[in-house]
Design a protein that fits this description.
160 residues
C-alpha cells in the first residue's frame, strides 16, 4: 500500500468499514425478504393446493410439478435463511489490540483498511451466492403459483 497520511489512512478505513456495514444490512434485508417469500409460497400452496387436491382423484404432472416447485422454493429460501458463522463484519478488541495498534498506541488505519477490504471480498462472494438462491426462489415461486393455477383451470366444474 502507498505511504498515506494519517487522514488518508483513516479515510480508507472508514470507506472499507462502510462497505462491510452495508453488506451486513444487505444480508439482513435479503434474509427478511426470503422469510416473506417462504411465507408466500406456504400460503399460496396451502390455499391453491387445497382447492386442487381436494377435487382431483389422480395427480397429474401438473399437481406433482406444483408440489415440486413448492419444495424447491422452500429449499432455496431456507438456504438463504440458514445462519452461517463464516461472515466477518468486524474484529474483536483482542485482535485489534494485538495486531492493529502501533507501539505509540495509535491505530494502524491503513492495515485495518486492507483487512476490512479482504473481509468485504470474502463476504461479497457469499452474499452473491445467497442472492442467487433468492432469485431462484422467486422464479420457483412464480412457477409454483402458475402450476397451481393451471391445475385449477384443468379441474372439472364442481357438481351442482
Amino acid at each position: 500500500m502507498l505511504a498515506l497520511s494519517p487522514e488518508g489512512a483513516r479515510f480508507l478505513f472508514d470507506q472499507a468499514s462502510e462497505l462491510v456495514d452495508q453488506q451486513r444490512s444487505d444480508l439482513a434485508e435479503l434474509r427478511a425478504r426470503a422469510g416473506v417469500l417462504l411465507s408466500a409460497v406456504s400460503v399460496s400452496t396451502a390455499f391453491l393446493g387445497t382447492v386442487v387436491l381436494q377435487r382431483v382423484a389422480d395427480w397429474s404432472i401438473v399437481e406433482v410439478g406444483a408440489l415440486a416447485f413448492f419444495v424447491l422454493t422452500s429449499g432455496a429460501c431456507i438456504i438463504v435463511l440458514l445462519p452461517t458463522s463464516d461472515w466477518i463484519f468486524g474484529l474483536g478488541a483482542k485482535v485489534l489490540a494485538d495486531h492493529f495498534i502501533n507501539a505509540d498506541g495509535l491505530p494502524c488505519y491503513a492495515e485495518l483498511a486492507e483487512h476490512r477490504e479482504r473481509h468485504f471480498e470474502k463476504n461479497e462472494r457469499k452474499l452473491k451466492n445467497k442472492y442467487s438462491w433468492f432469485l431462484a426462489a422467486c422464479c420457483f415461486l412464480a412457477l409454483d403459483v402458475g402450476m397451481w393455477l393451471w391445475a385449477m383451470y384443468r379441474l372439472p366444474p364442481p357438481p351442482r
